[in-house]
């Protein structure tokens, strides 16, 4: 690497989430440090500057006005904006919560009716600003994260797969837990990337990566109802990790 | 500074803590009149999110409260639900759960001590400088953190948000062969953890609170130092079952913060490593015991900053205990590993609580389940919520002492003080909807 060229600058920030992506990035930082300058990463370092950077990684959903202000400022100061983790890409469990209960009702229940606490219905980043790369996961997969970053450092928009988990599961030659053990595996409608972690230990995929491309929700619901699951439980499971309501319009009518 | 002057100290964003928080201190007539720890992390309303879901889904959902203590949220949920359903896991499952938990303790403590707390003592401004100018400490952190994540990956299926731990057991038991590399990693990391304790003992805390805290922690099972139990003990001399935690823990929301504050029988509490060591150091053994005995903690020093050292001692303990557990698990007959250690539990309507000692202190989960196994009501009390009132009191005491003196270091020192609690704001904002006491 040429020494007089300034290093590309990166920033790592979080909105409302569990800090999982911050941890994955922190844990893999030793691999990145030779190639980038970390301009800001408030979770991990004391000295942070807001200035134009090449890549900004943002974890978490937009869940309050403060998140939105921060996101807008980050977007204005970055060339590439990468949404990392299910919260930033889909809205994760907090979006599912907002689907079945209004934010105001939740605030009233938790903080009392006259609370000054401000909250917005949990939403992914692209509801508010353009996002260049969406890297889902709960948490993100370290290998995928490093590959995406390497691509961006080479000025190249990476391809991130959204094929179903079943694909990775078959490649691993796992026995199918949906068919052989009658477990409520959501692999057929969940985006791959984890390497089919749950079926590989004999458990059902519960959808933590968010929906795959063109998810066949009706077919999935039919299989699960044949296995004895009631429709409301099926809908609860399918939506638990941020799958948008639009995917369930037909199912909810039935 | 004149006495009649009003002054306000503001730290708008505390860096190197989990989540987002700020501190405001108001001073009037030479006295601290107000201290506010404002947690402005967005709220995710977990107690509402879980409602209507089947109990089998709950550990996977509550895991997402917080990544760094996800194994704790998984186990607290499992404990509560298995308690309601009257299920007792067998020894193999219990040992795997304990091993998973120890992996979390090692990883969480190592990251807090090295990456979040140490930079204050070694004057490290950013990560680049940490990696290049403090190679030794950076490598200690890497080794310990990788160890914690290797344990959690082997047992739980990934470094956090475990996929292998369920209500009713574990879906796949790692084999003796898979556990073996962990033993090598553990014995290699042990000396690093001991050295970390020595390093921390060299630092003189720059600030000091002036009153003794009230400590609260779970009485560990089986008379051994540990992180699981059913009854809490207070340094004020009382004990109580966690099933009745509402009787001793009060919670209130404060208008300036998204996090609620808890008190124990009306008093600010300190939970976490220092509390556990203060109450149960007698139960330590091995190297951890020796280090404890040679530390200022053994002579009764309760300076907040020593919580960093207390965490390091717990890392040594966790490494020793993990080796013990793995040796026992290696003895378990191989054929047993071929079958998943999981029992499908039938729903029973009822309610109950589960608790674990997370890295930062006692974590409580409570659920009310209907006869179909769906969640009707839930409650979680996190360690950070229990510590908040004591953090504010610490800040008040430290600022009070510096009034009248010139101190350009005050804000930095306050941050160091707050960081020693290892506050986890993503946890703290998932507070309850019930107002009790
Ligand atoms: S176990 Fe799940 S992910 Fe694997 S093939 Fe079957 S349905 Fe797909
Ligand atoms: S199998 Fe499904 S639930 Fe399990 S880690 Fe992968 S995407 Fe997440």
Short synopsis of the structure:
The complex is a heterodimer of chains A (254) and B (437). Chain A is an alpha/beta fold.
Give an account of the 3D structure.
The complex is a heterodimer of chains A (254) and B (437). With 254 residues, chain A is an alpha/beta fold. In chain A, strand 3 (53-59), helix 3 and strand 4 (78-84) form a beta-alpha-beta unit. Chain A has helices at 20-27, 29-32, 65-76, 85-89, 92-100, 103-111, 142-153, 165-171, 177-180, 197-200, 217-226, 231-239, 249-253; strands at 9-14, 37-40, 53-59, 78-84, 133-135. The longest helix of chain A is centred in the N-terminal third of the chain and has 12 residues, at 65-76. Chain A has 13 helices and 5 strands. Chain A has a 5-stranded parallel beta sheet with strand order 2-1-3-4-5, with helices on both faces. Chain A is 39% helix and 11% strand. In chain A, helix 11 (217-226) packs across helix 12 (231-239). Chain B has one domain: Cytochrome-c3 Hydrogenase, chain B (Orthogonal Bundle). Chain B has 15 helices and 15 strands. The interface between A and B is large, with 65 and 64 residues. The structure holds iron/sulfur cluster (2 copies).
Key terms for this structure?
heterodimer; A: 254 residues; alpha/beta; Rossmann fold; 2 domains; five-stranded parallel beta sheet; 13 helices; 11% strand; globular; B: 437 residues; alpha+beta; Cytochrome-c3 Hydrogenase, chain B; four-stranded mixed beta sheet; three-stranded antiparallel beta sheet; 15 helices; disordered C terminus; binds iron/sulfur cluster
